[in-house]
User: What shape does this take?
Amino acid sequence: MSLSPTIKAQLRTELATYHNSLWKPPLNRELEFLDRTVSSLNNIRISTRNQAISSRCKRIHLSPKVRFFRTQLPTPSPTTTELSDLIFVYKHIVNGVLKDYRAILAQTKFTSQKRKTWHIDTNQFFLMTQWPRFKIVSPAKFKCGFHIRPKSRTWSTYGFVGPLASRFPIYFSSSRILQIKSHIPSTKSFSFSLKPLSGWDSSPSFFMKCLQGLIGENLLKNKPAFQLIRTLYILAEWEVDPSDELEWNSEKIEDDKGFGIIEFTVRTEE
Assistant: This one.
């Protein structure tokens, strides 16, 4: 479902402002990227005669953790890791009916170096590529299990950030990294370097695809993925109803943990 040329043009202006906020002053760590992303992209409102787009965002005061088994290890044992740092959600409502509902889990990686090289945790990479059965163990009140089986290659994506390494954040799906890394390493972490024309999306391209429903897992066809997103919305104390117009409390939280939800809703009248 396409966006009108007028909305596309205004969106590009909004995104340019957002990217400038990441550039000056330079980022010093991942949480600064999360905070500036949530702050800049919150409460966007653009409309034309028959189409409108809006956004709402929130940073949650913790990092959701999940537990699963690394079955390919000689001695399988339970592993606990962060689920992700950001969720991008796209909804398209046509004549009052939800027609498209997609989500992307993004794990951000920060580097202060000039080289485009980031360190990736192996256990987290296993989760983001294999998606075994897992349970949310933090916060403790959520004890439900999930088996996602995503169809989209962009369901789990890395967001590579570094003011010296790249002008824009770079988004690279975990499945693409798995194609480059022919096996999942057994060490604690490994380095991943981006080379020119290697299939990554710069941030402007990533967001325009996201805002047109071209990437992300289809939550209308994947019930476990929908239930996971629903659980994370409950964690944020936010209703899941796609027509919901509630505002989040966007007070800035000073701590060393964080998780953000970025939601865009497109409404079209035909």
